[in-house]
Amino acid sequence: MGLVLLVIIWLITFISAYFFIAKTWWLPTGASAAAAGIDHHFTTTYILMGIVFVAAQVLLGLFAWKYRDRAGGSPARYSHGNNTLEIVWTVLTLILFVGLNLMSSSIWASERFRPAEPGALQVEVTGMQFAWYFRYAGPDGKFGATNPELIDPSAGGESAIGLDTTDPASKDDVVTGTMYAPVNREVEVILRAHDVIHSFFVPSMRFKQDAVPGLAIHMHFTPISTGDYEIACAELCGLGHYKMHGMLKVVSQEDFDQWLAAREAEKQ
Amino acid sequence: MASYTPTASLDDPRTSTGGNGHIPPHHHDGDDFGSSFFDVRLRRARLGLVVGLTGIVMIFVSFSSAYVVRQGLPTLDPRTDVLLHDWFPVPLPRLLLINTVVLLISSLTMEIARRQAGRKAALAQLASVPGVSVRAKKGVSWLALTVVLGLSFLAGQWMAWRELAASGFYVASSPSSSFVYLLTGMHGVHLFGGVVALLTAGAASLLRRPADSQAIAVDVTGWYWHFMAFLWVYILCLLEFVH
Amino acid sequence: MAGSTGGGETIMATRELAAHELHAHAAPQGFIRKWVFSLDHKVIGLQYYFLALTAVFVGMFLSLLMRIHLIWPNVSLPLVGEIKPETYLSLLTMHGTIMVFFVLTTAPQGGFGNYFLPIQIGAADMAFPVLNMLSFWVTFLGYIVMLSAFFVVGGAPLHGWTGYPPLSALQSAGPGEGPGADLWVISIALFCVGALMSALNFITTTLDMRARGMSMMRMPLTCWAWFITAILGLLAFGVLFSAGILLLMDRNAGTSFFVPLVVVNGQLVAHKGGSPLLWQHLFWFFGHPEVYIAILPAMGLCSQLVSVFSRKPIFGYKAMVYAMLSIGLLGFMVWGHHMFMSGMSPYSAFAFSIMTMAIGVPSAIKTFNWLGTLWGGRIRLYSPMLFAIGFVSLFVSGGISGPFLAQPVLDIPLHDTYFVTGHFHLIMGVASIFGIFAATYYWFPKMFGRMMSESLARWHFWFTFVGTYAIFMPMHYLGMAGATRRYSQFTELAYLRNLIPLQKFITYAAIVTIAGQFIFLFNLFWSMKYGKKASDNPWEATTLEWTTATPPPHDNFGGHTPVVYNGPYEYSVPGAPRDYVMQNDPATVAAH
Prior knowledge:
The complex is a heterotrimer.
Chain A: H1 2-22, H2 35-66, H3 83-113, E1 121-128, E2 131-136, H4 157-160, E3 174-176, E4 179-182, E5 187-193, E6 198-202, E7 207-211, E8 217-221, E9 227-233, E10 245-251, H5 253-267
Parallel strand pairs in A: 1-5, 4-10
Antiparallel strand pairs in A: 1-2, 2-3, 5-8, 6-7, 6-9, 9-10
Chain B: E1 3-5, H1 37-72, E2 74-77, E3 82-85, H2 95-127, H3 142-166, H4 175-206, H5 211-241
Antiparallel strand pairs in B: 2-3
Helix pairs in contact in B: 1-4, 1-5, 2-3, 2-5, 3-4, 4-5
Chain C: H1 15-24, H2 31-36, H3 41-71, E1 76-77, E2 81-82, H4 85-104, H5 107-121, H6 129-148, H7 179-208, H8 221-252, E3 263-264, E4 267-268, H9 276-310, H10 317-330, H11 346-374, H12 383-400, H13 402-406, H14 408-414, H15 418-448, H16 454-480, H17 494-497, H18 500-530, E5 588-590
Antiparallel strand pairs in C: 1-2, 3-4
Helix pairs in contact in C: 3-4, 3-5, 3-6, 3-18, 5-7, 5-8, 6-7, 7-8, 8-9, 8-10, 9-11, 9-12, 9-15, 10-11, 11-12, 12-15, 12-16, 15-16, 16-18
């Protein structure tokens, strides 16, 4: 029985570890400036924790077999413990855990403590049951006023976000269902939600932030490779949560300018 | 190394490594001479009350923290995108001060009742000594008086609510009015529980339960009652002074 | 394997006391007094246990429906019919709520704690038997109210067990957010009341009713675990209760504690100024201690079992006590790690993350100590021990994913993905359930006087151990690949469609594992009637419950209050006649 237990525990451990090492299912390729740092720290964490995982499970299985009750075996070792050992492994664990966290804190600080750079592209991202809308401020660089009384989700676009078209600053605001961003330029997202909490999650950008009604949350990220990146809602928002998705298209600066100009032209 | 000693005398139980090396003080279950079963039960009941009150305190700590947080929370006006403070304190009816006095007086009557019940229990123990007779003392039922005062307080709170409503402050009128109703309401519910406990203790007396059981019931209810008075003063101060 | 009542001699209380105690605990007559409104902690413990047993099968059935829907979204199932997206979310909400409250917070503490705490400390009952009885019936009422949410207009709520407003606060935000959600909140409020009453009893009993010689540091670690769990419950359930009251008011009285001005279904709501984050703070201030409430009793039991079945004292008893105390204390300082992505200040997030990494330390200490207890032992692999070892393995697996989530930077890709689901199911769900199974196999002989079938128990163990790993380990891979939680199907995003094969594997594993649980159910009831008769101490364990008759008499010790001379883990003491020394054996073990 002890041997079977050892074998099963070891098998489970090695099979689980294999899929981590082989990265059979893994984080998508990083496409933002922050991804490299996050992924590097992810690797550090999973190697260190992986060693602990394997060591603990291997020992567990080993002990369950090695110290089994056998006829003629020596009696159990009578010991209430070892204080020195307790102190040693407590301190080591504390250093490992807190050390890991401190290592990642600089990345967190650069992602979240500092505001967006002055030249960042501002995009207002609004989540509502069950779609994302994106608003660009246009040439005047100002977002026009919105009014909750004007919100009409069924009409889509400007009406969905309740754009107040009487405000002059609204004239050049572009509202789309697909997010465009130029590559290698910081994007500042201003996250809002109309009804319940949603969460703007772009796996490839290693970006996630809840969109909370009553708040306008400013965050930033910098896409570094062109392509199409799926956006998923990552906070339960109702029956359509599973289909509340969007697309982020990262293109060259020229293509972006062309696209925006075309959207502005449509408004005339 | 441990050593196993097969002989130990009952009067001198040696302790093991599982303990801390010395005989633990025993104050359990009243099996020492000198401490009575009543003392044990009273201590246990009081301990239970302290523990229970801790749970209740956490409820009011949560409400208090929600209150403080909500006060300071600016809200985003979705029309103008400006952060506004929308906390406007509710002017509290003067009636609340009168109710406070009533409650504090009830605390006094409660304390008298509590001590009276304790003395009754002590006398009852004496009555078990042959040759001693104890006559039940007739006088004011301080317990009943406390019940009356407690109910008056609750009636007064209800009237204060009516006054608030008449001035246009309902539960949902504003964030501050919500908290006024919430805090006074939750306190009232808990105080009503105290009234029920008092009535139960009173019933115990009428049903001629043993004096020591009565005393324990009245003692525990008494301390609960004092706590409710203290909690009320705290709530009033929170509503009045914390902005 | 003959048991004995240890040293036998006890100090008799004064005559009046003994008589009084016996009078206070005279066995009740009549079915209602004996089995329905019993004041006997043993009966109440069994009531809690069987409540949890029905709840776990309800919870498992809900999860089975969920898993089937995830991979066959359009299939119409027998009994239930077609599962619409909102139905999936209701199943998910009720699965989580029922499992967390009515299984994990009920069986280990209300069930086994009620039954065995008084006996293990040498008391005749809990401090307040009437309160104990009331706490069960309030919990039972909460359970009925919870289940009734399925049957009202709109059905059960769909807002998840975490109930974040505005989704949970607005009747118009989704199907099930009508009366079903109100019943959900009321049920939880009732549960809170029952839990507070129970905590009161546990704490008072532990502090005030230990037998002579049973110092705090001689208590079995199960008693420490129940005690600390009760303290956590005492401090946490009041906060959940308050949050529930505020939510009920937002839902029904038009207040705006949690709801800002929002537009739902094109309609402006009659709320403004509230903060959804306020709910999250209150909920998680409760929610984090809650996960320790769910796991601590299992940790205490695991310590007990590895010691008994290795025939060795627990390695580092004091360290184990301090570790549980630190887990309890730190458990109140980490709640913000559920809110890293919520819009909370990133500076607060940093502070919470440091505390969270710190709380991993006492958990690690406990794991080292369990391994240290096994080392050099003479391990008897009976079913309770299999589940105890399984517990350690699952605790390690579930615990290792914690440090990933505890670091806000790594939480960015992982929050609200299946990585989290895998993490908490392994460490809170499965590990705790293993504790419940282990407790059942261990204490069944004492409660029912018979042994459960060992061979059926082994089948059950292998099905469950391998099965739960097969279900929950792959969820970590799903999560890393970005699979978001609480999605009723994976058909709408391309990267999620690629993950459906792995979801299929999980579902098949779930079907097999759930099937295996019927082995346990059969074993449980069959053994009550037909199991081999058990002696008083079949496991040759040292703690006080094994000194009493089987099942224990009404006042636990038959009128003889035990006196304790030894610690709870005196196994293989050199020089002792047997490899275990009962706690009440006056033939004592002197200090090192």
